């Protein structure tokens, strides 16, 4: 085979391989979910140090009281990346799981005001939102543009949501059953003068 023909064959092979590869994932290789991007089933945000992952997950099957094996729903959560057993740190839609049949239509996005929203892409219906879960969000009085919102999964497992005009540092009210080492607890409360010294 001539060198030119070999070069063309390899180039064509690489082109075909790249066209048939997996579709690009909006959050599969990054720690950031930016404005206008969606996190779909199978997409993940991974912290910069690789210790934490955010995405949709499905717990292992459980056995009901009647002895039937149930197939659980899907949840949005943050979990430890490098452990053999799925260990969640935070679950967002704990009370509003995504049914298996709707997962392919489900996505996580940032709303215009910076809330995390799980919605059905086909119907536009909201399944879950942080609209009541973000606390301590402060906006600068001069800026109301939040179209540059982003959510970043930090190295300590906190999800930082913010834009150039405001920032909420992992202040989702996390209904969590464990406390990740290095995490911080934020309480929106003023200290009495006697304790503030």
TrEMBL record:
<dbReference type="InterPro" id="IPR001480">
    <property type="entry name" value="Bulb-type_lectin_dom"/>
</dbReference>
<protein>
    <recommendedName>
        <fullName>Bulb-type lectin domain-containing protein</fullName>
    </recommendedName>
</protein>
<keyword id="KW-0732">Signal</keyword>
<feature type="domain" description="Bulb-type lectin">
    <location>
        <begin position="30"/>
        <end position="174"/>
    </location>
</feature>
<dbReference type="Pfam" id="PF01453">
    <property type="entry name" value="B_lectin"/>
</dbReference>
<feature type="signal peptide">
    <location>
        <begin position="1"/>
        <end position="27"/>
    </location>
</feature>
